[in-house]
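Suppose you are handed a protein chain with no further information: no name, no annotation, nothing but its sequence. What can you learn? This example shows the usual starting point.
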Amino acid sequence: MKDLRQRRTREAYQQAFWILLEKKPYQKITVTDFGEICGLNRKTFYSYYEEVDALAQDCLDRLFGWILVEDVENYTNWDATRIMFENIIRYQKYLELVLKNQMDYLVYRSLKRRMHRLAGRVMPKDQLFDPELLFEYTVAISWRCMVWGVKNKDRLPEELTDICLHTYRSYITLMANQYKSGGIR
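A reasonable first move is to predict its three-dimensional structure. Written in structure tokens, the prediction is:
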């Protein structure tokens, strides 16, 4: 019963986060605002999150969990990317709020954590180049693709997929060439 109550409280805070983000800039959201929407006091907020950034990070982690394909090893690159763009369109409202509020540093942290988790399952043990650098590129590409997908929502997911995969392959080829020439260590 306690777990269910905790989950509901956490979900209430997450819903309140998106509601507040629609109403005011991220930098102006306070713990008091959450109390007003959720009907909970500051002490309750701080028993779940140490600051508003921690709640925002939790919300972004959840959002990217909905958008990115978790079981990527069961899909071709094309299908996984197509599904990602379909999810971008599905959760476009939330991505637009994130873009509008310039929350890039939180986005980067969230995407990097998710990419680490995914890469741990699909990355070959004898990769050609530094995995940290690959994560940097992958996170940057993923976020750029999401931004581009939101801004070009009238395009078909297949078009977006082809463009994203082309960009990703170009970066990987560039990295591989730099590695072979001694430019990356």
